Amino acid sequence: MTRWIAPGRINLIGEHTDYNDGFVLPFALEVGCTATLSPATEGWSVTSAQAPGEVVVQPSGLAGREQVPDWAAYVLGALWLLHDDGVEVPPMRIEVDSDVPTGAGLSSSAALVCSVVCALDDHLGLGLGPDGLLALSRRVENDAVGAPTGGMDQLASLRGEAGHVLFCDMRDLTAQSVPFAPADSGLAVLVVDTRAPHRHADGEYAARRTGCEEAARRLGVPALRDVAEADLDDALSRLDDEELERYVRHVVTEDARVLAAVEVLRGGRVEDLGPLLTASHASMRDDFRITVPEVDTAVEALLASGALGARMTGGGFGGCVIGLVPEAALDAAGDGVRRAFADAGFGDPALFTAAPAAGARALVSPDIRGN
Ligand code: ADP
Ligand code: MG
After folding, report:
1. For 269-274, what is the mean pLDDT?
2. How far, in Å, CA of 361 to CA of 109, rounded?
3. What is the share, in percent, of the chain residues with pLDDT greater than 70?
4. Which atom of ligand 1 is closest in space to residue 73's alpha carbon?
């Protein structure tokens, strides 16, 4: 038996910069998905503690791929892709169990996929290494499931480190750990899951992505990451398109805010993150226009009740908000958000604090067993 755990993640700052070849700053969460692999006599069988039923497929019966329930493709995707690559994948049973809330923007999908990929690599002795694990995890979401994720979620889940954020360059998919221990400064990251229904998220995401690509094409750069902040005004004056100008302003200033956040953290000035978070939110709300009333309300309530900064995290149109909150103000901030939601007639939000935790790791491994 082989068992791995891989965490969900929160992006501290850097939104919609990933597909513009830019910078992001996620950290791995304490909540995660465990994947347990055991040998079987026939077929590949998968179960999830969070989904009904058992799904059994035969390695040879590849025609049935599109008939498995959506959730099972996240698990079977790695087996299918390895099989396509010519790897002999023996009969096995895979059980997954996760405490990452799904669809909240905390990347339950990457937690699930990375736990399975790491367990498979270990179980079969594939020796994929860091780049291979990342590549296979991305392919599962992009090719087997068909979700256009850019790699940040998998990087954070695989390589997160306790007490650190992961400074990722999404052009070459390299990542460096940067210390982030808010508790040392008497601060905490308060997460508000607004539970707002995602409205038109897929179509709007695609529209932003296409708009950014079109803007880069018109500006004659490979990606918006290549527009320096110092050249922003010049770039905007060349676009002559109000919508694209807003997109470019968001992406260019957001990349600059990620770099500023890294400087602030390397300098040990965690409290100086606050204004960067709030500026990021304003940019997503006013320029990129990906927020909804629930997330704007949560940000305003956090700022009004003692947060040093707050922003929506994740792709937008719902999802979670994070606030950098003095520990002494946590109760007041939570009460402030709940009151603001009640006054606005929104449903109850879920609130919890999050601290950077370790990335994917073995719980039971063939190596640990010594065979
Ligand atoms: P997020 O990654 O932000 O949580 P996604 O839409 O990318 O949202 O992924 C959520 C999907 O991942 C779920 O709808 C489900 O198909 C799958 N999933 C995640 N965790 C589990 C789990 N424990 N069991 C079964 N499916 C899961
Ligand atoms: Mg996801």
Report:
1. 98
2. 17
3. 97
4. 16
Nearest CA residue ID for atom 11, ligand 1: 109
Q: How are beta strands 187-193 and 320-326 bridged, if at all?
A: antiparallel
What is the number of residues in the chain? 371
Among 31, 48, 74, 320, residue to substitute to test ligand 1 (most atoms within 8 Å of Cβ): 74
Q: Delimit the domains of the chain by residue range.
A: 2-180+357-362, 182-354
Q: Whole-structure pTM over 0.85, yes or no?
A: yes
- Choose the CATH number for 182-354 among 3.40.50.2000, 2.20.28.120, 3.30.70.890, 3.40.1440.10: 3.30.70.890
**Ligand 1 pocket by C-beta < 6 Å: which residues?**
33, 48, 50-51, 70-71, 74, 96, 98, 102-109, 112, 147
pLDDT tens for 192-227 read: 999 998 777 788 999 999 999 999 999 999 999 999
Q: What's phi and psi for 9, nearest 5 deg? A: -150, 160
Which among 153, 193, 255, 296 is annotated as catalytic? 153
Q: Return the CATH class of domain 2-180+357-362.
A: alpha beta
Mutual angle of helices 129-139 and 70-84, in 10-degree steps: 130
Q: How far is the CA of 195 from the centre of ligand 1 (A)?
A: 15
Is the Cβ–Cβ distance between 300 and 321 less than 8 Å? no
Cβ pair 187, 324 in contact under 8 A: yes
Concerning whether 153 is annotated as a catalytic residue, the answer is: yes
pLDDT at 198: 77
pLDDT score of 63 more than 60: no
Q: How far is the CA of 83 from the centre of ligand 1 (A)?
A: 23
Ligand 2 mean position, distance from CA 241 (Å): 32
